[in-house]
Design goal:
The chain is mainly α. Helix content is 68%, strand content 0%. The chain is built from four helices and no strands. The longest helix is centred in the C-terminal third of the chain and has 27 residues, at 87-113. The radius of gyration is 30 Å and the shape is flat.
Length: 114
């Protein structure tokens, strides 16, 4: 027989030990829920990660402006490629819509009159 020894299970008394979790019915403030922890703790984690990512970017020779422009150029290239690829397809859609949409509109107008 396996016995579960989880101190966080319902019905246990909360002694204030941070490893036991909050007491039943405990509700964190809206700010703590939004941030995912205490504001000071979140600030320190973000600061530490910012230093690590900044150091990594410096090793690669990237600056925030250069990174932005590389992402921008890549997005423009993908959009141009997509527009060139679907140019004929878009023409087919427009040609079909010129016929289909008015016919649909006429059929809806006649359906309303019944």
């Amino acid at each position: 027989m396996i016995v579960e020894h989880d101190p966080r299970r319902p019905g246990q008394n909360y002694s204030g030990d941070p490893y036991q979790g909050p007491p039943p019915g405990y509700r964190a403030s809206a700010l703590r829920r939004f941030l995912g922890g205490s504001p000071a703790g979140v600030f320190l984690r973000l600061l530490f990660l910012s230093v690590l990512v900044g150091a990594f970017m410096a090793m690669l020779g990237l600056t925030p402006a250069r990174l932005f422009w590389q992402i921008y150029d890549a997005a423009c290239a993908l959009i141009d490629l997509g527009l060139a690829t679907f140019h004929d397809f878009g023409g087919w859609i427009l040609a079909g819509a010129v016929v289909v949409v008015p016919l649909w509109l006429i059929s809806r107008l006649f359906a309303v009159s019944r």
